[in-house]
Design brief:
Length: 522
Amino acid sequence: MPGTAATTEHILVLDFGSQVTQLIARRIRECGVYAEIVPCSISLDALLAAAPRGVVLSGGPSSVYDADAPLLAFDVETLAGQHGIPVLGICYGLQVIAHQGNGRVVPAQRREYGRAELWLDQPHDPLLEGVPSPTVVWMSHGDAVAELPPDYEPIAHTESAPYAAIRHRHMPIRGVQFHPEVHHTDHGARILENFVRRICQCSAQWTPEHFIASAIESVRRRVGSRGVVCALSGGVDSTVAAVLVHRALGQQLHCIHVDTGLMRARESETIERLFREHFDIPLTVVQAGELFLERLRGVTDPEQKRKIIGHTFIEVFERQAASFPDVGFLVQGTLYPDVIESQSVKGPSATIKSHHNVGGLPEHMQLDLVEPFRELFKDEVRAVGRALGVPEWFIERHPFPGPGLAIRIIGEVTPQRLEILRNADEIFIEELHRAGLYTAIWQAFAVLVPVQTVGVMGDSRTYENVCVLRAVTSTDGMTADWYPLPYEVMGRIASRITNEVRGINRVCYDITSKPPATIEWE
């Protein structure tokens, strides 16, 4: 278990492969209770050693009666009955409970996907306390429980699911066929809060202030008197991590910002001003734009761009880090989604593209990692940043990829194309702020497409580039919907870009969600 969680009441979420398992942990944490995701194959001994206050079994794409279906390595009735640890099964998790208890799970006569009305049979059950009847829930299942195991009874139903919620008559075991973790379930947050607060008896200990105090103690204990280096990209994660570690270690921290020449307009100046003036944290800025552009010359393949940028960054960072004495640790802003995506329930997932964060440093550097945010989701990092005094205008900044503008220029990266894109992107962001839309959007940026089209400016014919605008909403970047910008705002942005940015004569808007597309174009 992570160091922070070890001192906190917590819930374990056993992952059976659902696309929304992360949401379960997020919703529980929003109740002020720490939740950690672990593979469903965890042994009973390992689970008991983690000492959770409760266990949630996630949904999943399998059928419990399949030969290779993921099942538990222990009996839930042993966990709940002998060890007193409450269990909540969600969708496939409910079916695992029923299957394990000798109930009967079969292909549903009518599969349920989407909204359904839930009627409460036992409205005073602690899991359903405060939930109205009927209430809207979100279903997503092709199998159904046809017969409950002995000692189980229904506590809620829908029109086609008589066992939409169940409980054991004598043990703290519950199951729901719907998904309380998704926002489409009207009172899903209340149901999860009832489980962790009323059934598991957890108190609200998971707060930014608790995390900061625990993380500072952990960093000091781990690092001792050695030096620490931090690569500042200008993003929220690395910035908040640096502020936290500086509070723990003071002058032992050496912050390095590598200006790759692939940054947004005035990005490096903003970072430098924030650290030196607002936080009074020493910062070394390395100007390496010419080196990066030289190595990217003639390169058009997106993966090759990412690898060149990553390797060059490591080389420049390594050279600068070596100038500081007695450095033994590297701070990285690794987030919890990065950690749990490396765990697999039914085998490795396909690689869509290299992760935008710089990969591991060469072994010969022999630096140990300090990753204070390995337990946190993005929104939790922002909450920690606010508690640490990071300015709100910075906390609300949109994510920016490690390879920078290089993966927003389709094709070869040149100084001229960087300048064109940088100017267009700055206008886009300015207008979003002016319209009061910036904070409603997860990420917005311009893309330069090396397709030239005919245009007319004044009495002259032009043959210039296409600029594509992208704006999406998301909670963690794993899925995203395109943002419906008002027509008048899009018109104003397009007019400014075509008038003010020489080299662009056509502006388009990307209305593709993720999936099927990714957020970034490369």
